[in-house]
């Protein structure tokens, strides 16, 4: 369980985070989405008591993180895979983390094995690829057998196989009752594993909810004219159907059921090459419309 | 990353339930690790990298080298137990404070603070652990110095460079004040590391303060007396000298220690505990 209440962080005149609230429930994976610099890392560091909020508060498992006597045993944290001493081996890095939370040394080898780093355990972290550092960070987060995982951009730098394995690992963790907060600036990295989404842009919360909730009311149609996009556009306008987006392939994304779009085209006699609902692309469109442009970030207050 | 199918919460230590979300249960679940474990970890962190091991190799080489230098090259009246022991402490006195400063700064520059302070949110415990680790290293430095001085003495006797009438070990007082001297210096190193959070700046300050104050009091006569109280390099000097230490000299030690050890330590602590980790 993670609860974030009206969290704000200001650096001088810059509002890095403004009034963000959300909750992550046990048994779920929450995808924490937003462009780079939106404030995701700052929020995660405030949750973990590493950065002091200007206003608001956060709790993990019902209490402020810093009041947990031995937090590693309850909350697995990966905030920056690059934040490692390059001179230590992977195993040594984890050994220090294990002893700092009173976990037996044998657990180090178990988690190294779990993330597929056993063979590189004795090499210096300075020689690791970024993907290997991510695996090391995930292994460290798992050391204390926690109930909550807080992972900042764990997928970046991983190869497709690594991303696939991590999805399975996080899904299994949540299915056994764990709570996962997983950030990314790329929707596809979290879309298939997350149950819920929290989207932020320019330090503000712009949307949150399950995928269905987020895309509800935003269902629409993708339509592409066989020959004459301009004629299609005026046909849509004639029926009062709003074009949400004009795509590069000359298709339009319309805020209406496909049947309505089809009738509008038929009445105007416009031949179509493509017409379908947007269920599959709804979340991505939402993500881009809410976080993509500066105006959207401001307008979604 | 193979997904284990075992149920979570089967790790016996701490008896952690994966969905434990009631604060009461959480608070009894896993106790914090004891301070001595954190201290042992900080000691380990000073030697578990190649660069860390190099520093200690250099300190050991300096210890042995300086003792040999005294045995074979110093004036004959300096080839006594105190002279040999003082020589053995040269490397320790110069480099251990640097180790202390770097140990603190590395948390910020290597950004390991992100892990250290996430696992031990009470940052003061980590600072105390680093300080205790440095005091342990100080004691080890003095112990190794005693062994080296004794070995140098034996070598000197065998080769006729040290007279048979010279005592084997320095006085207990000299050993104790040497411990205090290096202890103050490593604490100053740690304090500057906390306050400045930058290894280069900390080391420059560590060596710069006594050097600059020394030059100023050497060139401006009026500053000589007050700087005797303020310059740590000068005020701590009698601690490493076998001659008796006067009350005034002790007062100078106290003044310089308050100014360059206590004040930076308090300010550095305040900064380290409050600082945002990024």
Report on this model:
The complex is a heterodimer of chains A (301) and B (278). Chain A is an alpha/beta fold. Chain A has 2 domains: 2-209, 3-Layer(aba) Sandwich (Rossmann fold); 219-279, Alpha-Beta Plaits (2-Layer Sandwich). Chain A has 11 helices and 13 strands. Chain A starts with a strand and ends with a helix. Chain B is mainly α and 278 residues long. Chain B has one domain (31-274). Chain B has helices at residues 23-29, 35-47, 50-73, 81-88, 90-109, 113-119, 123-159, 172-196, 199-219, 224-230, 232-235, 247-274. Classes of the chains: A alpha/beta (301), B mainly alpha (278). At the A-B interface, helix 2, helix 4 and helix 5 of A face helix 1, helix 2, helix 3 and helix 6 of B. Chain B: Keywords: Membrane, Transmembrane, Transmembrane helix.
Concise description?
The complex is a heterodimer of chains A (301) and B (278). Chain A is of the alpha/beta class and 301 residues long.
């Amino acid at each position: 369980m993670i609860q974030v209440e009206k969290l704000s962080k200001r650096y001088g005149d810059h509002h890095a985070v403004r009034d963000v609230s959300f909750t992550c429930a046990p048994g779920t994976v929450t995808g924490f989405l937003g462009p780079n610099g939106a404030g995701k890392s700052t929020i995660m560091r405030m949750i973990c008591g590493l950065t002091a909020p200007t206003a608001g508060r956060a709790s993990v498992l019902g209490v402020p993180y810093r009041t947990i006597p031995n937090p590693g045993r309850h909350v697995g944290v990966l905030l920056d895979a690059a934040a490692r001493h390059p001179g230590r081996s992977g195993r040594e890095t984890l050994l220090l983390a294990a002893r700092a939370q009173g976990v037996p040394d044998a657990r180090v080898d178990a988690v190294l094995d779990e993330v597929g780093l056993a063979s590189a355990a004795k090499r210096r972290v300075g020689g690791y690829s970024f993907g290997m550092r991510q695996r090391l960070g995930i292994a460290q987060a798992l050391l204390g057998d926690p109930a909550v995982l807080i992972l900042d951009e764990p997928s970046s730098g991983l190869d497709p196989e690594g991303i696939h394995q991590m999805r399975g690992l996080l899904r299994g963790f949540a299915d056994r009752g764990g709570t996962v907060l997983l950030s990314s600036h790329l929707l596809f990295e979290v879309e298939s594993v997350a149950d819920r989404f929290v989207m932020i842009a320019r330090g503000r919360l712009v949307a949150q909810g399950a995928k269905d909730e987020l895309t509800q009311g935003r269902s629409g149609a993708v339509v592409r004219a066989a020959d004459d996009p301009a004629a299609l556009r005026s046909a849509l306008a004639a029926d009062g159907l709003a074009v949400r987006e004009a795509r590069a392939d000359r298709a339009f994304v319309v805020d209406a059921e496909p049947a309505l779009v089809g009738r509008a085209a038929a009445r105007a006699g416009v031949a179509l090459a493509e017409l379908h609902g947007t269920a599959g692309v709804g979340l991505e469109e939402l993500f881009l419309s809410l976080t993509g442009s500066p105006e959207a970030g401001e307008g979604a207050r | 990353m193979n997904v284990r199918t075992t149920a979570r919460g089967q790790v016996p230590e701490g008896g952690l339930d994966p969905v434990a979300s009631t604060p009461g249960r959480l608070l009894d679940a896993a106790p914090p690790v004891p301070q001595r474990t954190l201290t042992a970890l900080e000691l380990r962190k000073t030697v578990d990298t190649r660069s860390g091991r190099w520093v200690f190799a250099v300190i050991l080489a300096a210890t042995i080298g300086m003792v040999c230098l005294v045995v074979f090259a110093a004036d004959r009246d300096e080839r006594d137990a105190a002279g040999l022991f003082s020589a053995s402490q040269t490397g320790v006195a110069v480099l251990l404070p640097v180790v202390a400063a770097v140990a603190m700064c590395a948390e910020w520059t290597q950004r390991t603070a992100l892990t250290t302070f996430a696992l031990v949110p009470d940052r003061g415990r980590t600072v105390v652990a680093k300080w205790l680790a440095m005091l342990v290293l100080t004691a080890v430095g003095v112990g190794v110095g005693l062994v080296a001085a004794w070995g140098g003495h034996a070598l000197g006797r065998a080769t006729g460079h040290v007279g048979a009438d010279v005592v084997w070990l320095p006085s207990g007082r000299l050993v104790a004040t040497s411990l205090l001297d290096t202890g103050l210096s490593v604490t100053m190193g740690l304090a500057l590391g906390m306050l400045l959070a930058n290894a280069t700046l900390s080391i420059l300050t560590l060596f710069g303060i006594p050097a600059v104050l020394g030059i100023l009091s050497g060139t401006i006569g009026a500053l000589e007396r007050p700087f005797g109280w303020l310059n740590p390099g000068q005020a701590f000097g009698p601690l490493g000298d076998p001659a008796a230490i006067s009350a005034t000299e002790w007062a100078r030690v106290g003044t310089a220690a308050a100014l360059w050890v206590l004040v930076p330590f308090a300010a550095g602590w305040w900064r380290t505990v409050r600082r945002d980790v990024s």
